[in-house]
Every structure is written in C-alpha cells, then in structure tokens.
Amino acid sequence: MKRIFPLRKQGRFYNSGGRNERKGWLIPSVMLLLEAAKRVFLRPKNHQIEDWIVKNIQINERSKEPSITWLGHATFLIQIDNINILTDPIFGNLSFIFPRLMPLAIDIKKLPSIDYVLISHNHPDHMDARSLQQIKKYNPEVIILTPLGDKIWFDNRGFVHAQELFWWEQVKVKNDLSLVFLPSLHWSQRGIFDRNKSLWGSWLINTPDFKIYFGGDTGWSEHFEQIGAAYNNIDVALLPIGPAEPKEWMEFAHINAEEAGEALLKLKARYFVPMHWGTFHLGFDSFKDPLDRLHIWWDKNKERCVDKVLQVFKIGQSVTYAVRQKMVEQVQDVLTKNAGKISL
C-alpha cells in the first residue's frame, strides 16, 4: 500500500490532497463565547470528576514490560524496555478560558525519570511551554522528538537534545525499540503568522514484541489504514475521541468517537484506549459525551470487535501488558470475563 505524505508550499505544510481545516475567525469566536457559558451550565459535578481520578497513584521508576499510565488529555507515561516516554505533556490549565477539569494525578517532579518526550504537533494543549520547561528542569538530558519545523522552538529554550522528524521517519532508541513518526490529518499554529509552518503527526512505539500507537490529534483520513498495513500487530491504540462538536468545524481536525472506533479497525489494533476527552472543554461536547458515544458505537459493533478490547482508563491509572506471545491469552481472558469492554 502506498504511503501518504504532506504537501509543502512556500514554507507551509498541507495535508495530503490539500485537505486542511476551515479558515476564518467567526466560528472560533462563537465557540469561545459559548465556552464561557458552558463553564457555568455544563461543568461536571465534583463527584463526577472524582470518579475518574485514581488516588494515591503508584508508578514504577522503570518497567521492562509495556506499561501505560494516562495523565489526562493526550498525556501518557509509556514505560517499555526500561525506557520512559511521555507524550504531548500538559500538566496545568490550557488558559483562563479553558481551565483543567480533571485535577493532576501526579506532579511533574514526582514522575520517574523521563528519557523521551513525543510531540504530535505544536498546539498549546499538546506542546505546553510551562510543562515542558518543568520536564527539562527535572530531566536535563531528556530527548525531545518533534514534527519537522518545531525543533527551533526547543533550541531557543535551552533543550539540548531536540530532534525533528518527517512522516515515516524513525529514531532507534535501543536494541529493537524504535520511535516512528507517522501521518495524521491536522494543522499547526502557535503564533499569528506561523500557521502550518511545522508539521503534525502521530507516533508508534515499536518493538518486535509490542507496538503502541499514539494518535495525537487527527481528523479522518487514509493514514489509519496505511499505518495498519505497514505495522502489523499493533497491540495498543491510544486514540482521541473528542472534541467532536460542532462536526462541521471539528471534522477537519478531530475524529469523533465513532470514527475512532473505525480507526481501531483500520489499524488492526488489539486494545483501544480512548484519550483527549474529559480533561478540558474544547468543543461543544459535555464532559462525558465522547465516552458515552464510544460505548454506544462499541455495543453496536461487537461482532466487528470480537477480538478487540475497549479499555477505558481513569486519570492516573496504570496498566501493564504482556508481550505478544502472552497477549493473545490475556486478550481472550479479558473478552471472556468482560465481553470486550472494561473500565479500570
């Protein structure tokens, strides 16, 4: 199967086929006004939030076996082969307009040593300056892997080990462990004049015995099928399920819960861990809408997902997986006991 690549013209990137998000300021402005009202009327109750937080979080310093901890939004601590990897770190509020709904599960300074940080794109909720500076403070030798065009941002802030990648490029970490930068359908911007001057994408943590796919932010495109064909036997897919509304705006940059389910099938992954919901209010969806929609989709598609497991994490929840030779037995056991769907 052929591989898609981004278009590049006059120093700016464009999605394959020229598909990019809607332009203009009217819809974003209306969204900001509605967000202010939503904070009053749709903010989840304290007990709803507390139900999704793990108290007294316990994280190992290192793990040989694959271990994944959700820290909120698109931030995961992934531990594999005694390497610690952090994805799209954000540990505080996005802004005064978009406060954090879910409290922190763990302070940055209490995290184990971080070896690598994977950045999917440069939007502030995925490349948070304050969080990254704190990570550097406690991990001065941390290696930052970014999309093409973002390295200069890290160079200017004293990160001594930053490297940028193009789609389908990889960095070999050790032995048979590699980190692969892969496509997505999205866009980039941090300032007024830098729209799409850096790339965006997704990541694969790749070993012969275990593969973890991190979807970043993405709309629907053929990249899911291409990645599934290129990397057989993806074990865990970390996929965004929101924000999804209003669809006419969000579809250019975000898959909804139903599309995330279809993405799982295209990727041919075993476990589905939903992310990018509940931590911030970034669309018109209420706190738990994306997850509710995902459960409905899953129930309607049980036959198509007979060998899959929907694994819903709480904030601060850690799960350790068996490598592939043991994983088939593990998946079958989960399917038998939980009908393919578990909340941790």
Walk me through the structure.
With 344 residues, the protein is of the alpha/beta class. The chain is 25% helix and 21% strand. The chain has 9 helices and 17 strands. Helix 3 links the parallel strand 6 and strand 7. The radius of gyration is 19 Å and the shape is globular. The mean pLDDT is 88.
Tell me the number of strands: 17
Q: Proportion of β residues?
A: 15-25%
Helix and strand sequence: EEHHEEEEHEHEEEEEHEHHEHEEHE
- The overall number of domains is 1
Main sheet properties: 8 strands, mixed
Distance between the termini: 37 Å
CATH-defined topology:
Metallo-beta-lactamase, Chain A
CATH architecture: 4-Layer Sandwich
**Sheet with most strands: strand arrangement:** 9-10-11-12-13-14-15-17
The CATH class label is Alpha Beta
**Percent of residues in helical segments?**
25-40%
Overall mean confidence score, pLDDT: 88
Class by alpha and beta content: alpha/beta
Supply Rg: 19 Å
Number of helices: 9
- What general outline do the C-alpha atoms trace? globular
Keywords:
344 residues, alpha/beta, Metallo-beta-lactamase, Chain A, 17 strands
